[in-house]
Specification:
homodimer; 351 residues; alpha/beta; eight-stranded mixed beta sheet; globular
Chain lengths: 351, 351
């Protein structure tokens, strides 16, 4: 297995050198652009006092009854469907914690995002906002969610997302990892993308992702998931056998434990696990492959023990260095996307 | 003026009958798909106690310092740029209160939304989420926003959005207006799109919209705004003279008072104001043209007094009946979009 992986790496590296990092910037022929919500259920709130609200300056003062029926637990999907997809299955993009589908739309320094890359490469793309993130909307707390939201300060990204070793409010005093690829001069622009998150909503998020795949992708799909999205992606594939045709886990967390969960339902689908650079900084307590103990190595071994098809890529081993937790925003984001695209082609996921 | 308007209406009606309601469903040639944030500023929160957070089940328990630097007041823009636009300027879509750009993406019964319609008609489309809505993200309260969010119960739409006269939790007991066009059988799907809103953020929303137009549309743009977005659109045009080349106000509210605000800066740009049906139900206290007294009639007259170019369309007068506050989701949404498209062509906004 190890030898096969190394040969694959070398082949991949040759492909990257031979074909360059971009599938082209020509116009694409698009059949449909849109968005929809799915999942969730009605929740009724009762016995709250009537509010007095003036929605608009100079507008009427209205009595608003905050009681009534609300939808809670739905998620949001934005889609771009090509006239002629070159891939066999639509590509679902699932973001990480405290973020939304914007993760894949643009980079903080204004280059095209992975959504554009994979459209150019011939995939129908479904870019999702998990429950309580972005356009999915969120529900009242403590009435519906049981906890308060957590807001991520700008500083937390520096160490945890592996941009550098020392954060300071003064940008001139921040110390970045030598050779790191995140456009740190645009950290404020990345911070604009942050959304609050709850720690009590994993069940709702999982249920909506499952409903999405079960109802909308009966013909199959490939899921590309980042960070927090990784665990949801694996569990969605386990819960919807036959409907997830490939799993691409980018700096993921939250893998199921193969000692407790039977991984057989996903043994026949190709699984790619991709890691960036700077994994061994002792200051980092989260968002690297060791943060969760041996969670992912154990998951990969457990799946291989079931004759699963796992490709484990440490980008630095491929000679692709300097990548942070936010691979899709790093300056070489297209190069990393090309590694993923080449893997999909090799796995037979393209037409 | 009145006679001219009536002749224009008749011409428009003939055009609608002659050419049908759709600019065609052929594939479109797309140059770029993406999204970005703009506006806002850094806000520092201090002296809050450290939180203990477990982000993921089985994940590490982390100490999270909730103090630090946050971005607040930014907005979000999703864009689709055509290879060859047929319009002279990009079209900005601004949603109403308690909603996001999803308003324009799909209808609750799953038909293509106005975003797709105007792409098909040849416009580059920039579909926006205002500050604190959807992908724009929102900030802590009461630390940053001074008030609590308002959540709209499903029931509130029934009367206020002019779907009908009697709401009941039991769908079978709801009374819709005879001939109304909203797909009321999909009310739950519409409710999934609702997001909380604050009543204390108008200044932040306005500032971000102004920055968007000032920085990104120096070559001009056309703004199509719904409901709460209408007032922001007029004020953005007033604040950015020469950059807004046309205003399309769909069931708008929040117009400036011409006795207090000089409307001269927008006297040379065409302004379209569109109203749906069922305007005279005494139970309705908001979201119809009379809800704000004579706000819009006064605005229109005030602009005409400055030799402004106002087109005032009551759709029932054109023979287009049954439209609710949510025109872009009504069953005849393409027909209403075509009225707007024909107006843009007549005003010289197409190439």
């Amino acid at each position: 297995m190890r030898l096969m992986q190394k040969l694959f790496f070398i082949a991949l590296l040759c492909a990257v050198i031979a074909f360059g990092a971009s599938p082209g910037n020509a116009a694409i022929s698009v059949k449909a652009v849109g968005g929809f919500h799915i999942g969730g259920k009605e929740v009724v709130i009762k016995d709250m006092p009537v509010q007095v609200v003036q929605y608009t300056k100079n507008g009427p003062i209205e009595k608003v009854d905050p009681n009534g029926e609300f939808m809670a637990g739905q998620m949001y999907v934005q889609y771009v469907q090509l006239e002629k997809a070159l891939s066999k299955y639509p590509l679902l993009l699932w973001h990480g914690g405290g973020l939304t589908g914007v993760t894949y739309e643009d980079t903080p320094d204004g280059r095209p995002g992975w959504q554009q890359f994979f459209l150019n490469a011939g995939h129908d793309v479904y870019n999702c906002d998990a429950v309580e993130r972005g356009r999915a909307s969120w529900a009242k707390y403590p009435e519906i969610y049981t906890t308060s939201p957590v807001f991520r300060p700008k500083s937390q990204t520096w160490l945890n997302f592996r941009f550098g070793t020392e954060y300071n409010e003064d940008p001139a005093k921040r110390v970045a990892h030598p050779g790191q690829q995140f456009p740190v001069e645009h950290l404020d622009q990345f911070t604009r993308q942050f959304v609050p998150r709850w720690t009590s909503t994993d069940g709702l998020i999982m249920a909506a992702y499952n409903e999405l795949i079960d109802k909308k992708f009966t013909g199959g799909c490939v899921v590309l998931a980042h960070s927090q999205g990784g665990g949801f992606a694996i569990n969605a594939a386990l819960a919807n056998p036959g409907k997830v045709k490939g799993l691409i886990l980018v700096e993921p967390n939250g893998a199921p434990d193969p000692d407790k969960v039977d991984l057989s339902p996903i043994k026949d689908i190709p699984v790619l696990i991709v890691w960036g650079d700077y994994q061994n900084n002792p200051k980092i307590t989260a968002w690297n492959k060791a943060a969760y103990g041996d969670l992912y190595p154990k998951f990969a071994k457990g799946l291989e023990a079931k004759n699963g098809k796992v490709t484990w890529i440490d980008l630095p081993e491929l000679g692709i260095k300097g990548n942070t937790h936010m691979l899709m925003m790093d300056k070489n984001s297209d190069q990393v996307a090309q590694v993923i695209q080449d893997w999909m082609a090799k796995q037979g996921l393209m037409r």
